[in-house]
Structure formats: C-alpha cells, structure tokens
Amino acid sequence: MKQKIKTYLKYGLFLFGIVIFIYSCQKDDIDNYENSSHIKVNPYNVSFSKFKEHTKITNLSSYLKSKTSQSDARVDVTFNDFLIDTTTVNHYLLDSERSSFSFKIILKDSVVDGETYNLFIRERDNQWVSSIMLFVEDNDTSNNTRFSHIEEVYTLDGIHARQSNHHHNNSVARGGGGTWSETNIYHCTNTGECSSGVCDLCYRCVSTVSISFTQQGDFGDDVGGSSDNGIDGGMYNGGGGAGSYYDPNDSNTNHNEEEEDVITDCNLLENLSASPDFANKMQELINNTSGNTEITYFGNTDENGTTSLPIRVESEEGVRGIDIGVNSTEQIDVFMHNHFNNGQGSLSVFSGSDLFTLYQLYLNGNITDVDNYVMLVATPGGSGANDEETVYAITINNESSFSQFGANFLHEYNLIDLIYDSKGNKISPNISNSLNEERFTKLLNTFNSGLTIFKGDKDDLSNWSKLKVTQSNNITNKDCN
Amino acid sequence: MKKILILTLTISSFFACKAQTIYGFDTEPEAMEANNIYIKDTNNDHDLIVGTWRWEDSNNSFEITLQEFEMYNYPDTSTRYYDAIFGKYKYIVDGDLISETTTIESLPNFSIGLNHSTSTLYSVVIEDVVSGKSMIGEFEIISSNTGTLNLWRSEGIRVNSPDDNGIDFSLPMSVTLTKQ
C-alpha cells in the first residue's frame, strides 16, 4: 500500500509539473513568418537576414556561383550579369512545407522599360532551386493584369531554358516550362470602416496589393528525385532600395542588409542637405519653432538629386496643427514642417498627426517612391533644462510593415494620439528631448512600424545619425558620416 | 534516481516558460520590457475616475461615462497588455441632442479614451462623431466627485483629414463635471 501511494505521488508530482508548465507559460507570439495559416494568403516581406536564416544560404554569391549552368549556346547571359536588390525580399508559402523567396535583380548593362527580372529561389525536393523570372508590363489598360507575360528565362539548376520566338535585344534566352499565371492578393485591414470583414478594395480597407506568380505542374523530372505535382511560384518583387544593389560576383562585399539600409537613407539625407532650397527652408522652420505658427513645405527631388520645395502652407497664428488637402495626383518626395509651443508644450519628436499624414500620403499614392521619401520635422525642443530645438527625419525602410502599422494605428489620428500617451509609451510635450527621442524610437520599433528615424543637427543639416533600438532595448546612434 | 529526475523536471518547468512581466502605473517605459508585459492598475487608481460624470446648466448637459478595460491589448496580436479606460458621451444644448455615442468602444473605434498620468490626472483623446474631429486634453479629478475636462487641438500636420471638412468640433472644450 505504501509503495502504491509513493508511486501515485511521484506520478502526481510529474503531472503537476506538466500542468504548471502549461498554465504558467504565456503564449508566445506566433512568428508570423512561420504561421501556416498564411499559406498563399499573406505574402511576407522579410529581411535579407530572415532569408538567410530560413534557407541557410548565408552567402548568396557563393550559392549562386555553385549552381551548375547549362552549357548552352542559346544562353547569352549568366546569373552574374545581374545585380541583386536585397533590401526587399519577398517570401511566399507554396504549401505548409515549402517556401519561395524572390529578389528584384537588374541587368548590369541595360534596363528595358517595362521589364523587371526577379531571382526566384524556392524549395523543391528538399533543396533550394533558383531561376530568373522576367515580368513584362502589360500596357493594355483594359486588362486586369499587370503583366503581359511572365517567363522563366534562366535557371542555374539544370533546367534547359527553351528558346522562344521572342528575342529581346539583349539576347537573354527565353523559355521555361509552362505558363505562369498572375494573381492579385489584397491585404484587407478589417479594421475601422472595414471591420465588418467586407473588403471593398478601397484604400481604407486594403493596405497592400501583391502579385503572385504560380504554375501548376510536375517538376519531378526537372531536378531529379521523386515527382512532385504541385504549385511552383512566388511573389513578384518590384524592388526596395535604390542604390542598394550588390554584385554577386563580388564575394568580398559586406552584404549586411541593415548596413545597406543605413547607407541608402544616409545618401538620401546627404543629397537633401546639399540642396539649397532644402537648407534655406529647413532653417526657416527651425527659426519658426520659436514663433506661433506651423509651416509646412513639400516638393520633389529631381534626377540629379536636387530637392525643391515650392509648396508652402502656414497655420493661423497661435493655432496648433495644419490641415492640408493634397490632391491625389500630387507626387511628393520630401515633406517637412515645424512645431511650436503655444503654452501647452510641444512635442520634440514627430506627433501622432504627423505619422497619420505620412500614412495618408502613402495610401493616396502621393509618395513618388517609398524608398526615396523623407519626412522631416523641426521642433522647439522638450521640457528638459538644456533642451534646444530638435530636427528629425523619417524614412520608410519596410513598406509592408509600414502598411500594416498604418492600417492598425494611423487610419485615424486620434488613435495614434492615444497610443502616444499610453503608459507603455508616454511620449509627451512635458518631458525632455532625450526621453521623447528614446520613447519615440522604441515605439517605432515595438510596433514594427517599418520606419527609420534619423536625428539631425540643427546647426549642421549635413550631419545626420540613425537611431536604433538594440537587442537589449537601448538606443544607439549610428552616424551617417 | 527516478525521484531526482521527476523533481528536476518539475522544478525546471517553472523556469522554462517566458512569463509575462507585470508593471504598476508608476513604472516608466524605460524600465519595461518591449513585449510580454502587463501594465496594471495595481493601486486601483481607476476606481476614482470610472463611472459617469456630468456637467449641467439649464437645458445644457454634457455627460461622460467611463469604463475600465482590464488587461486590454491592441491589436489582438500584441503582447503588451494594460488596464485601459474608454467611454461614451452625450452632449445636449438647449434640450437638443448635439452629439452622442451610445456604446463604449475600445480601439480602434473608440470615441473617448483616457491614459493615466497620476491618480488624479488623465490625458484624454476624444472624437466628436458629428464633425469627425478629435481633440486631446486632460481630465483632472479635483475631489472625489468633481473633475475638470479641458480640450485642445493636437499639433502636427493632418493631410486630407476630417479637420478639413468645414464642420466645427461640437463638444465643449472646458467643463467642470460632477460624478454621478
């Protein structure tokens, strides 16, 4: 009897431990990256480091060089003739076990309008296989398709690229097996006006539209191994970072994705600061932080990198906030304004309304190029004893994340105003520059905003640094110069 | 040996989990983890403000009803939980209903939300459903049954917002209310 009781106690103790394990553990955030409910429903824009983590392809150059190219006289270009954009990587789940990644790539020697190439790496027969896809824009506006045709033009994995009747003037071999179909995927916000679940595809209900390309078939004969009838495909990648391509031939290049983001955005700000119109008008805004109006300037950057800001709007005296109507056809590259203190304090960082505006401009198609867009603010500073004027810039480093952040928090400006001052954030006019800077940077990070904040020097507008949250939840400053 | 193994497994299970960290309202954001947190009203400060507050003057009245939402998070995938306050309101002028919200909604469709600053001071964000405009402000508890609400415009640029629709914000900007 005693022995039985001892045995029952042992098992009871063990089971108690299991129960405690189950109830005391909080459900971890499901990493959306691995969430199987997103199969072919929600493509993910992922970082280059995520791609490496998932595929174990830590050196893309080496991986591509290791692929066996077919000895084929019809193939005039090889993979090494392309530059790869790693700032935006698209991830697509083919099924519960197979992933697909796509990068925008550019022919080094010539770019043809209306043609985009993608490097397409996906799982097949438990290995990663790669192809080059060509997307040709459809100029017939009566069609509902974006592309007139999609071709697999080259593969380094032993698949012959069959020659087609259409020869391009750079002599890329055409072909690839089968027909690729295009599908638009709408990302409905299901919030606010769209919370009924009905996605009416208007800008308020749809945060992003993506294009997938798929092909049904039997791919078993192509790479050996067993036949695997199923879907092949990926997510079209229109690219992400101007000036952030790298050459797969150069295996010595540091392809650190974050480094490339900083370089790209720093270049943006450097060009901006070299534009006389920007320098003069930003100085006006800095001076006006001690005044009693908010002034806004916005404009464009030309192909030489020179910014001009011809549009100016000023609030009434003593009135906080400016309400601006921007025509949907207006294309903007740079948008800047100032805060002032009317006795109720002033935010030393971007306000909730400023982020609301950024999202509205994005939704309405007013941003010429998300990757080259800069929003700036000058403020009188916070309530710290030695606080001076502040200057900050924001860029969009991840459009997909920004789109989701906007759908959650920026479709009404009152919502982000409430979030700003909540206990976990406490961004306020009544605290110091340094505290607001830290809290605002952390808010952008915690809510996966897809935005990068840069701190400017009010006395030297060519001097910028990127603010970042480290793994240990501290703020670091990375100089652009 | 078996006993040691079972005991070890049981004890290690307590440490194997990533538990939620609870903070009181007096914890500054810098001292908080980024995720898996619960910012809790450990001092029950919300008891002072939750309920119905009313300003009345002849045929004019402005009534706010505030409700606590315990362990609230937004969006529902967030692991940052907190005790939140949302409410509804009703504004009557000369016996005519000017603006009203009939249900208390949380994010994203709230009409009034409060954030605790101190036990007697809350920041406020309120949306006037008539004009579509919003104001920020403060609700200060003066005594156990008296409070003041002051509103003002938030700063910043607003592009293509309801503030551009030509309809004035219709709610009172400064009132003293009595707790009912």
TrEMBL record, chain A:
It comes from the Bacteria. Keywords: Membrane, Transmembrane, Transmembrane helix. The keyword Transmembrane applies. The chain crosses the membrane at residues 7-24. This is Lipoprotein.
From TrEMBL, chain B:
Residues 1-19 form the signal peptide. Residues 1-180 form the DUF6705 domain. This is DUF6705 domain-containing protein. It comes from the Bacteria. Keywords: Signal. It comes from Olleya sediminilitoris. PROSITE patterns: PROKAR_LIPOPROTEIN. The keyword Transferase does not apply.
